[in-house]
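Retro notes, structure queue

What went well: the backlog is down to a handful. What didn't: a couple of records were mislabeled last round, so from now on we paste the full input next to the output in the thread. Example, using AMP-binding protein from Azospirillum argentinense:
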Amino acid sequence: MTRPDSDTETAPTGASGGTQSLERALALLRAVASHGADGARLADLMSDTALSKATAHRLLTALARERFIDQDPRSRRYHLGPELDSLGRIAAARHRPGGDAAAPGPATVQPTAFLRPDYQGDAIPLADLLCDRHARADGARAALLHESVAGQTTELSFARLARDSARFAAVLRGLGVGRGDRVAVLLPKGAELLIAALAIWRLGGVYMPLFTTYSAAAVAYRLADSEARAIVTTGFLRRKIPRDNSRPVVMVEGDEAFGPGADAVPFWSALHESAPLPDIARYADRDAFALMYTSEAEPKPLGVSLPVMALAGIEQYMRIGLDLRDDDIYWNMADPGWAYGAYYGLVGPLLLGRTTIFCDGPYDVRQGYRMLTKFGVTNLTCAPSQIRAWHSADPEGGPHKLALRILSVVGEPLPPELIGWANRVVSVPLLDQYGQRETGIFMMNRYDPGHADRTADSSLGRPLPGFRVVILDPQGREAPVGGAGEIAIDVESSPLFWFDAYANDPGRTAARFRHGRRYYLTGDWAFLDGDGNIHFRGRASDAIVMQQAD
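Corresponding output:
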């Protein structure tokens, strides 16, 4: 969560506050540049820009994350970063006499700002991207705020997450977990879930979340199909694991009433007895780091592997689709056992160094209102069922002093009357987003501060930059404006598209590409209007959406 600085407590919020932060960041970049090859001390930059120490440090940290600033580890002086070099060459190619013809080398504009070298190649330190770099920059920053059903809040800092996950990685390595191994995580929302995920990624493994309401049969199927190497769970949830399980089990202490688990490794005791693992595994950009399964209702649940290259699309959606700003308090209410919660409630905040908010127990409207007011949530995303629960529980009530400025909904199109009700109650626009487990979110209704009211057309919105979305007729031809057909992604023109195949069903993979590998087919029908908006018209098949339950 963000902390107010002494010179920003009275700063305006919303678009003007964001503009002020941008202006200050640009002032810092110019100040760093003015000191040339010698670099600039923090004191120099404070003097040059008239910013407080806290504000200057916060902005420099953000600029360093984006590679616009480098800090020499020995001299502690700040220098311009490598990202400015590539942007500068692109700008020079445009503005020098002779234009592009005079440009040295093949500098080209990327179709999305987030196709960075960090997410490409064959030596990507995933645990560093998702945790350790944030711990180095601001270790005290909260990686997690966990709210119990009783209203008690506990905090896990990035520094503590780095230390504990390094210790737990040693525990998992001792159980035989290594590169490429899948580890099943059957845990409620809490600190142990984050620690387990980071530990798996330190080893180069594949994090496989299991939704806590799965039946024992659903758990057994996924364990067998994935060939999971180990399981992390609790005593209560261990009842869902097959009795003939031969995999090592790590069990979180605390609910021994459901069985001591004499054959299980105790999570916290083993963690604290282990020395932190010093090394971090490297991934290639197409290596899987998570494995998501489709709904329990599927006749044959499909395994969807999330590759490291998908981080670019996750960042694109967090920053553009959700309009997530530096001063936002962000809460993704989706369970991390489902794709939307895993992609944008777990991985996304870790990637950006933001605070994840977890709330225990099944969804409760009063608890939801308490969370919104207690933490001052400004950017909220949730499932349609949660909006319906608000409406059913208290059609016109709720607190009237929420800090919300934007509310996004993913899962299914909402009827206009429910959108209108939500707009009246929370006094912010309610924006539909669209995507699937196989793609992440790739269509959005983006928040426009100049037109804060929700558009009346109830469309799915427009493609997220980095995707080209088309409507295909039954013969696989792109339909004209107004023509109905199946929503598809033009793979060749979509640099953020990452899905390749299901982990366990070549036939269903072929159905997704039945017109050839050029187009990925969603299974949903829609039409494209003259303004580029896509309007949902129904299911063409058993499309697998981002979230099918809460």
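Agreed that this is the format going forward. Reviewer comment attached to the example: The chain has three domains: 34-91, 122-454, 466-549.
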